[in-house]
What does this fold into?
Amino acid sequence: MHPFEIKKGIYWVGVIDWNIRSFHGYSTPKGTTYNAYLVVDDKITLFDTVKQPFKNQLVQNIRRIVDPRKIDYLVVNHVEMDHSGSVPDVVELIRPEKVFCSDMGRKALIEHYHREDWPFEVVGTGQNLSLGSRTVQFLETRMLHWPDSMMSYIPEDRLLFSSDGFGQHWATSERFDDQVNAEELLAHAAKYYANILLLFSPLVQKLIETVKKLGLQFDMIAPDHGLIWRADPGRILAAYDAWSRQVSRQKALIIYDTMWKSTESMALAISQGLGMEGIDFRLFNLELTHRSEVMAEVLDARALILGSPTLNNGMMPTMADLLTYMKGLRPQGKIGAAFGSYGWSGEAVKLLTGAMEEMKVEVLNPGLRMKFAPTEEDLSRCIEFGREIGRAVKAKA
Ligand SMILES: Cc1cc2nc3c(=O)[nH]c(=O)nc-3n(C[C@H](O)[C@H](O)[C@H](O)COP(=O)(O)O)c2cc1C
It folds into this structure.
């Protein structure tokens, strides 16, 4: 993909990764982009690089605008290798006067690439760098989502290079929010938030406060993945505010696995009960749905209803996988309950209940266990179980 001028003298020089399908446990069925940006001013400055196998494409893009050796500064907003993987080659090629990064960024770059000799210049919130007609204001965003993370704001252009914040894993030929379907874009941004930033929600709240305190205005928010927000940057800021406050709606998820469909028939009956109470619900069979798709739905759900048959005195491995993943992402303010079929010892429901308690989910009841295939009467109990959860969902509003 050719470079693209996003504002006068400011270029997207990133690359599109159409083929990536998995990102540290996160499914990326539609690929991603690694965005890097070049600001041509008295001091020519490159903001971030790309994943190492794409370094030639990055350099080609830069060459279409300037001779890479004319670049004066490199800013590393985030050290994770999808953005810094090309830093060693780029530093070798451009020989920058300075490499700007946070204090933690300098440490992490050395821990990754073992080059203490690079011309590091450590910067933090409140520090400004003049590029000539423009200024870069650095904004440290520690643990959003790594200790080294920072963002760079150019007040003259009201432009924020937001690193991994406000990103989406979505490979497109379009570069801006107004060129794609708005709902689809927001869904990608929500999935990204739920799978990468959810656990840092209190820090997102702090960032929103800092942005307000500093009076930063945005014409454009340019993340390191996906599309650039220019039509209405306020929309993604408002979404981050809601997601980080973990605002939920009257929605319940029934997440389950099943070997011989008894747990599945319980799931369907429970969903009938939820429907009778007017609750939006979604069913996810974990054999068919990736954990990261489930997390995207967890974001605004109020109830988590987890089902597993007992397998070898435990729960299904897909459920254990989801619980490990979800626990790390720390969803808050949920209510929940467990269910499942069993044959003789029936431990799964208790294990699911315990896992939810560990995640601080407000567990509504001890759960519903049924021996082998449920009878009609059993299914009526499942419907009532769903209704009880539905009423709790409404009461929590
Ligand atoms: C390989 C295997 C291991 C099982 N282990 C247990 C067990 O340890 N304890 C138990 O109560 N039931 C056990 N069961 C029985 C299932 O829990 C029971 O068949 C249940 O109805 C399956 O629910 P499903 O139709 O939703 O898969 C096991 C079944 C299979 C196939």
Q: What stands out?
A: The radius of gyration is 24 Å. Residues 258-263, 309-313, 341-346, 372 surround flavin mononucleotide (CB under 6 Å). The chain has two domains: 4-244, 252-392. The domain at 252-392 is CATH 3.40.50.360 (Rossmann fold).
